[in-house]
Amino acid sequence: MNRRQSLAVIAALAGAWAAPCAxxxxxxxxxxxxxxxxxxxxxxxxxxxLLATGLGKTLKQTVIVENKPGAxxxxxxxxxxxxxPDGYTLILNGNGFATxxxxxxxxxxxxxxxxxxxxxxAFTELVxxxxxxxxxxxxxxxxxxxxxxxxxxxxxxGQGGPEHLASVMFGQMAGAEVTAIPYKGAxxxxxxxxxxxxxxxxxxxxxxxPYIRSGKLKLIAIANNARSSQYPDVPTIAESGxxxxxxxxxxxxxAPAGTPxxxxxxxxxxxxxxxxxxxxxxxxxxxxxxxxxxxxVGTPELFGAFIKSEIANTARIAREAGIExx
Length: 326
What we know:
Blueprint: H1 7-13, E1 32-36, H2 43-59, E2 63-67, H3 74-81, E3 89-94, H4 95-103, E4 115-124, E5 126-130, H5 139-146, E6 152-156, H6 162-174, E7 178-182, H7 186-195, E8 200-204, H8 205-214, E9 218-222, E10 249-256, H9 261-275, H10 278-286, E11 289-290, H11 294-297, H12 300-320
Parallel strand pairs: 1-2, 1-3, 6-7, 6-8
Antiparallel strand pairs: 3-10, 4-10, 4-11, 5-8, 5-9
Helix pairs in contact: 2-9, 4-12, 6-12
């Protein structure tokens, strides 16, 4: 999937969403709850609040963000899965939603059957960064270190999260053993990366950009399949000897299964309208977020197909790494 889409092309495709659809009569007639399955202040929470503001104006109804963190998004998702399917409880999900089935043997909901995909929101640009003491300035040299007797310590934001999966995939494609060190969030992991307790990390560009600029961290490569507009001279991991390497954080809106299709379509159209607003696009650009190809993820059905592909891809990576759900 080509995950980079120019704003010009997105604008050209905007007319596709102008087609009328049968909206639910009288919806919404009361405030909508938007669940962020993470704590306040993080990327998911920030995007949820940005969308809540835009949707409130578009739908002419209050949209309230509620944080329900815990268990790698399972707590928030269980709450939504058991909520009435009436369009008044939504959730902004991401990679954890798709990775959980590969890491948790028993979950209190069915990832596919208990949710109605509404709209894809955005991808996040990910980068491979290292502590300046690491004696590698590119991916091949980093691979050589990974194959050495000391190996590499990769930090991540939690077992089963996207950064963990990215480090596993790096090790698989490098043909080397890497040690995954889990942390409770990006902040403590980045702190230890700067301090030298871990050596490398694949994480959101926005989270580490200040440290790259100050020289506290060294930018090795871009983890997405396209170069960064902020660092056009820095190659991707795929360009650096690992063809096909492509990973990113993603965000998308969902509702409980059984939510009327008319409401799903109304919300899909409203979200896509909000995503084309200049303020949202500017905020996304500042945070290293970019929209997906509408022809591939723009409708609820296409977003649903994307989620299934992410679940399958995660299962394959975990299986090849010998990871069993616990």
